[in-house]
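Hey all, quick one. A colleague (J.T.) asked me to put the adenosine-5'-diphosphate job into the tracker so the inputs and the structure tokens live in one place instead of scattered across chat threads. No bug as far as I know, just bookkeeping. Sequence used:
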Amino acid sequence: MIKLEAIEKSFADTTVLTGIDFEVDKGEVVCLIGPSGSGKTTLLRCLNGLEIPESGRITINGDSIAFSHKQKKYPINNLRRHTGMVFQGFHLFPHKTVLENLIEAPLIVKKQKRAPLVKQAEELLNKVGLLEHRNKYPDQLSGGQMQRAAIARALMMEPDVMLFDEPTSALDPQLVREVLKVIETLAKEGQTMVIVTHEMHFAKKVADRVLFMDHGVIIEEGPAENILVNPEKEATQDFLQLLV
Ligand code: ADP
């Protein structure tokens, strides 16, 4: 479903990603872990074209873009249309109701009809436990509710891959569980997902594979139980030790 080959990314003179290679199969859940500043968010943002690598190749569900120093513009929508992104800070439209937030993109971008979109949105809101809140505005919701609405909104575009950037790190501890439960449900349904997270218990539960990153490099990867319980590399051991 996803293939990254030799991805390099810098900001000004700072190299943030070096020689990133990895693949994600259809239906697989991959968690990216690692210290702050190791490049996890930048890698995730490269997958939907919010950041443009200087070189390397990204392929998502058959659409492929090769990046090069010489080129400035890319048909980035070819990648973006396969992905749904959920951010730390929710990013809902503040002046639209929950329901309107959900139907906005497919209405405008895909030019779909309103009535079936409302039905689809209500089904998704029911799934994330927000149907009764469909006519509220974001500032009338808790952080956990806002994040569940943001997940439902991303699902409206029926993405091949869902990308999560620390989806619970802006939430009060008591609201984290309700968001993680929704993501777990998606995992059980076979949704392909790449998740940047600091929640190691959650990663252990939900990830088919864990990638540990440090200084812009994938240090090691493997099944969650290997990486999180018995990591081989010292950097991974040190990182996990700090969390105990
Ligand atoms: P992580 O998600 O692992 O915390 P990030 O991908 O956010 O790491 O950041 C990796 C490095 O890139 C950090 O040193 C950060 O300061 C830098 N960085 C990220 N975004 C930008 C940007 N837009 N401009 C300049 N530097 C950036």
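Adding what we noticed when we looked at it: The mean pLDDT is 95. Strands lie at 2-11, 14-24, 29-33, 55-60, 63-67, 83-86, 161-165, 192-196, 209-214, 217-222.
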